[in-house]
Design goal:
By secondary structure, this protein is of the alpha/beta class. It has 8 helices and 11 strands. It folds into 2 domains: 121 residues, Response regulator (Rossmann fold), CATH 3.40.50.2300; 98 residues, Winged helix-like DNA-binding domain superfamily/Winged helix DNA-binding domain (Arc Repressor Mutant, subunit A, Orthogonal Bundle). The protein has a 5-stranded parallel sheet, sandwiched between helices.
Amino acid sequence: MNLLLAEDDALLADALCAQMRACGFSVEHAPNGAVAQYLLAKQSFDLVVLDLGLPLVDGLTVLKQLRETNASLPVLILTALDSLDDRVAGLNAGADDYLGKPFDFPELEARMRALLRRSRAQKTSDELGRLSLQRETHIARVAGEMLELSPREWELLELLMTHHGRVITKEQITQAWSGGAGDPAASANNAVEVYIHRLRRKLEGAQVAIRTVRGLGYLLEAEPAGA
């Protein structure tokens, strides 16, 4: 699981990163709100642990802007601003949980894992346009008709669907493929383009589009009905 920790207290951040990694998480640290915004725009995360009192851009602003583009990414606020008004403001801005400082790490870990379990449960089935994915069975349908997908096509489609509306880089795609079954096309320099082209053909009529964002990667988005 890939976590973003947005915390400006260097000593606390170092301790939390060490404890989180010891629990098996991969952690990126943002020391201020501007870095947090940058990382959220450039990378995919499974959970955000967010301090409200961040320098440059405060945590509440980071959260509000995140919710404009990603409504499902779990966010746990971890802050010394623990008044009733602060908690209400954070939850109304889109936080999924709120933990005041000081705190015990076992409680933080339990809350993080609870949010991750809830997020995984919500992601077992997704729909966008006329496209639907059943993750547990690895079945994709367009308007109810099952698509025939290779393992790599499924992994690519699932990745795009998980982060629809956000850019996915070629590096993220090849990482998702790592450890997969051998495929001659997968080792070629243009492997990603080959599979993107295949998926575009199979998704005709799904009212979704895989957009190429030059120099960055690809994103999946819904098209208006009749487009």
